[in-house]
Write a structure and sequence with these properties.
This protein is mostly helical and 287 residues long. It has 12 helices and 2 strands; from the N terminus they run ααααααββαααααα. A two-stranded antiparallel sheet has the order 1-2. The protein is globular and about 60 Å long.
């Protein structure tokens, strides 16, 4: 990705408590975004994007980014480029490979911020082909390496790494710089996240993973590609059964079944996808 010349990385952010006070006041209407130093606030929000304070992380920082980028479109394109560069280089892979640690909040909410920036680019077209290619490469690498797939974490709120990165992929797929020839490259890391055996998805991860897959299908991904993947699931489960202990194998089966059932429901809603219905039925029967 082309380097964005700025002082963004070197700008000292405010501390978490001061940031929380300001964002609470903006949320309550006591302060106005137009009266704030948005670059300073944005840097501070990115700095604390992985806070274990769920109020600050989710209800204030993420919601504020949503307002600034999506609803009000108040962040200049150049600043969004700087934020994107910082996210990819300094935040997306923080603690990657760890499980059960707090770094997952940074990675997960970074992908949500990337999704917001991609949405704005889909509207305004300010990111270059090189930038979008880099985002694609980084997201593919990230989802392949992410091991912490917890959804809701008691006392700390949503982690939801898989659901959040699926949202980022959905916006990426809609981008004009993403050709259909790249769909398989994007599809496979998403598909592999169905085959989780360490735990059972219980927070609608299956439905969120389906969203970018359905987007690709609606935009030209051949049904035969998905049909082939579906047909292979029973055999893949038999292979993995030999490698996993019994409990983890049944976690895996549960995740596959829930995904297939959610997929079946989506297929019934879309007549163009109905050819997949029998394949999904056969897959579920074999499992």
């Amino acid at each position: 990705m082309e380097k964005v010349e700025s002082n963004f990385i070197n700008t000292a952010p405010m501390n978490a408590n001061d940031l929380k006070i300001i964002l609470e006041e903006v949320r309550s209407g006591g302060r106005n975004w137009d009266d704030e130093d948005k670059a300073f606030l944005v840097k501070s929000m990115v700095e604390h994007i992985g806070s274990t304070d769920s109020r600050l992380r989710d209800q204030l920082i993420y919601t504020s980014f949503y307002q600034l980028i999506i609803e009000k479109n108040l962040i200049e394109h150049d600043l969004l480029k700087e934020v994107l560069d910082f996210c990819l280089n300094e935040r997306l892979f923080k603690g990657i490979g760890e499980t059960g640690t707090d770094t997952v909040f940074t990675r997960s909410f970074t992908t949500l911020l990337i999704a917001l920036i991609l949405y704005r680019d889909n509207e305004d077209n300010f990111l270059t082909q090189e930038m979008i290619t880099t985002v694609k490469d980084q997201l593919v690498e990230y989802i392949s390496l992410e091991k912490d797939v917890r959804g809701f974490v008691s006392g700390k709120g949503w982690a939801h790494s898989i659901a959040h990165v699926a949202d980022a992929f959905d916006e990426l797929i809609k981008n004009n710089h993403i050709d259909k020839e790249l769909y398989k490259e994007i599809l496979m890391p998403l598909w592999k996240k169905i085959f989780v055996s360490d735990s059972v998805y219980v927070h609608d991860e299956d439905e969120r993973l389906l969203i970018p897959i359905l987007e690709m299908l609606n935009n030209g991904l051949e049904l035969g590609v998905i049909e082939n993947l579906l047909q292979r699931i029973p055999d893949e489960l038999l292979i993995l059964k030999k490698e996993l202990d019994e409990e983890n194998y049944w976690f895996l089966v549960a995740n596959c079944k829930v995904f297939l059932k959610s997929f079946y429901i989506e297929v019934k809603k879309n007549t163009s996808l109905l050819p997949l219905q029998t394949t999904i039925e056969n897959c579920l029967t074999e499992i």
